Amino acid sequence: MPRSRRRSAAASAQAQARPGVLQRLQGQQVSQRRVAFPRRLFCQELAVLLDAGIPLYEAIATLCEKEESGDVARVLNSLTTDLSEGRTLSQAMRQQPQAFSSLLIASIEASQRTGQTAEALRQHAAYLTWLTGLRDKLVSAAIYPAILIGASLVVISFLTVFVVPRFADIYEGMGGEMPWASAVLLGIGKGVGDHPWLTLGGLLGLGMALAAAWKAPVVRAAVSERLWRTPVIGPRLRLIELASLYRTLGLLLQAGVAVVPALEASLELVGPSLRPSMTQATRRVREGARLSDALQRHHLTTPVSVRMMRVGEQTGELGPMLERAATFYDEELARFTEWVGKVVSPALMLIMGVLIGGIVVLMYLPIFQVADQIQ
């Protein structure tokens, strides 16, 4: 047999002896692109299977067999391949960064040392449920105001594009002086009527420019910073960030993660407004300071949360106490969201009513003026 053929056959035999290589490469290709992986469902189902006494490899293989989505099945198949090669679950998850968050990986890695993997999965599923609920509350609070604003903009656009130009043509033939506000409105309407496509193109260009600007991290950071300085909204945004921070730290500490690694993992999840303070607090804890003292020094606590943390440090229940602090602020945010729904919506209706009514009044004001002159 020629040397090249022997070399090819040896390479083929070596590849067959290691069947996981191709699967692992496929898994890496999957991880390079965004995978819509159902982490909450995965944690819930895997915890149930582990509680039933099914070994970890067989449990994930079972989830892979029932999965219909190709991308999700490939991620699960990569997990089983890595497990069969002797890797731990956290190491296998680390090979799929687009499917598994660093928070989940840190929780699983700590729970593997204590044999509480199923409990860590349940806690992470509860954490994801809380995140989903918080996002749903914020979205539901913004839906009705968004509908009001959208409907009002449609009405204003209709008046400006179709109605105001006709009034402008009528008043142009009448001659005479008009109130300056009506003259400005009718001038805008006439310009829109004379150049409708140019106006439409300008509006579309403005919308595309705003959308492109919103995607820029610098613009979003500036808007976020501005909102944080708003008197009413800023403190609530800070509470949302703090509640998320406390719940994340509580989840990691209850999973067995040490305080400093828990802070380092949480640092990746906090917003840019809290990140400098979190970095300084992590440094102080690494130098030996208590968690409550470090967070308080860098303005990452409230009077309620710092007392709860100190009680948790004294009793050895810091993780559960952080969870309770987050729950406390969840209730406060729920009350604020309800208040926003009761106050903001009527205020928006009043503002939009004044705008639309003002346009109508300005359109008819010259007619009233002519009628007064005739009398």
Measured between the Cα atoms of the first and last residue, the distance is 116 Å
Overall tally of domains: 2
Structural class: mainly alpha
Mean pLDDT: 80
Shape type: elongated
Low-confidence runs of at least 5 consecutive residues: 1-33
Radius of gyration: 30 Å
The number of helical segments is: 17
Judging by the overall fold, what is the CATH architecture of the largest domain?
Up-down Bundle
Element pattern in H and E: HHHHHHHHHHHHHHHHH
Portion in helices: over 70%
Beta-strand portion reads under 5%
How would you characterize the overall build of this protein?
It is a single chain. This protein is mostly helical and 375 residues long. It is built from 17 helices and no strands. The chain folds into two domains: 22-100, no CATH class; 116-375, Receptor-associated Protein. The protein has helices at residues 3-17, 20-31, 39-51, 56-66, 70-84, 89-94, 102-114, 117-174, 180-194, 196-215, 217-228, 233-254, 259-267, 275-286, 291-297, 303-315, 318-374. The longest helix is centred in the middle third of the chain and has 58 residues, at 117-174. It starts with a helix and ends with a helix.
Structure keywords:
disordered N terminus; single chain; 17 helices; 375 residues; Receptor-associated Protein
Outline of the structure:
This protein has 375 residues and is mostly helical. Helix content is 83%, strand content 0%.
